[in-house]
Amino acid sequence: MVALLSSYLFDDEPVHLNDFYWRAQDTTQQFWTLPYVPGKRYGNKPVYVLTSRKTASAAEEFAYNLKNLQRAVLIGETTAGGAHPFETYRIHPHFDAIIPTWRAINPVSGTNWEGTGVIPDIAVPQEDALKVAQIEAVQKILENPGGVSTKADKALLKEAQLLIKGLISIEDEGE
Questions:
Q1: Contact criterion met (CB below 8 Å) for 20 and 43
Q2: How many CB atoms lie within 10 A of CB 61?
């Protein structure tokens, strides 16, 4: 699923997302974006991914991959920090052992997020992440308004700009 979702954010040319090393078989499996996706790709438009300390599993890998490939801006809190898939072994009828059996290896960083989590580009409490992402997105559009063509788009952008100025001034006064 990570590869499928990521594929919408890149061009047709496959992009190496992540590897998983499986200790038991001493093999590494590579994961790449897909050359075909049903529907339209998102193109080179800005992407913002919201994270929290509850972001885990595939969502955590998705965030880590996009951050390392510099395809998204992560906004929010550091994620949970679980990069090693595991297997559960029954030791006793009342006791299980959870043993990591795989290890994620990012092709860009050569590391993963095990124990540290994925650190966002813009660290804010999770409840503020959406607002901050919206501000960042509108500011990005204002830096390059070439894609804004209709009068309705321009009016909406102007309204968003005024709203952001209001939000920023409110936040600045509270500091």
A1: no
A2: 26
* Paired tokens of 3: 């590869």
Residue in the block written with tokens 């699923």: 1
Q: How many CB atoms lie within 10 A of CB 123?
A: 14
pTM tops 0.85, yes or no: no
Residue 34: both structure tokens together:
């897909």
Residues forming a β-bridge with 123: 76
CATH of 2-125, one of 3.90.226.10, 3.40.1170.60, 2.60.120.1440, 3.40.630.30: 3.90.226.10
Q: What is the pLDDT of residues 75-110, one digit of tens each?
A: 999 999 999 998 999 999 999 999 999 999 999 999
Can you tell me the distance from the alpha carbon of 27 to that of 140, in angstroms, rounded to the nearest whole number? 42
